[in-house]
Write a structure and sequence with these properties.
Elements (H helix, E strand, L loop, with lengths): L2 H6 L2 E5 L6 H14 L3 E3 L10 E2 L4 E3 H9 L8 E6 L3 E3 L2 E4 L1 E3 L5 E5 L14 H19 L18 H6 L6 H12 L3
Parallel strand pairs: 1-2, 1-5, 4-6, 5-9
Antiparallel strand pairs: 3-4, 6-7, 8-9
Helix pairs in contact: 2-4
The chain binds zinc ion (ZN) (2 copies).
The site of one zinc ion (ZN) has 8 residues, from helix 6.
Length: 187
Amino acid sequence: MNNTLETTAAIGVLPVGMVPEIAPKITATHISGYLNLPATVLGPADIPEAAFDSLRLQYDAGRVLDIFESRDFGDVRKVVAVLDIDLFVPIFTHVFGEARQGGNVALVSLYRLGKHPNGSTPASPLLHERTAKVSLHELGHLFGLFHCEDDRCLMHFSGGLEALDRLPLHFCRYCLRYFNEAVANGK
Ligand SMILES: [Zn+2]
Ligand SMILES: [Zn+2]
């Protein structure tokens, strides 16, 4: 990986804190493979401790987004941050990922993806699949996609691991068309 590649990549995948090296690589591979967007793994960032909520003992996803959105990541169009911290938004106990409609930064947390409801750890292919699903879903929001009614579409809202595992690893034709148009229009 060299600087030229990094500056021409559309999507930067940002490892934050201690994440397994494979996680951002898999995310970048799925983004470039499925969405046809050049993606590269950026240099690692520290966990934004200012976003820690000492009452909930979790990280406020909105504050994490604010912190990363104020940073300069060079020429990449969008950044997908891969973290291993427990994220929440005020209305939910936790979230797997977070992104703002049309924003520049998406968050994907491995923290809850790497556990079965009974506390055991899933085999890594399942963890990788979940990570890829959340990454592509949040990236969809960055390119302006809303939640989709179709439960066979990756943009369908999933509130838990079981729902996430039922989702396919692709957008429905309408969402995919919208996504490709947004990419082409330079959103
Ligand atoms: Zn969503
Ligand atoms: Zn859809």
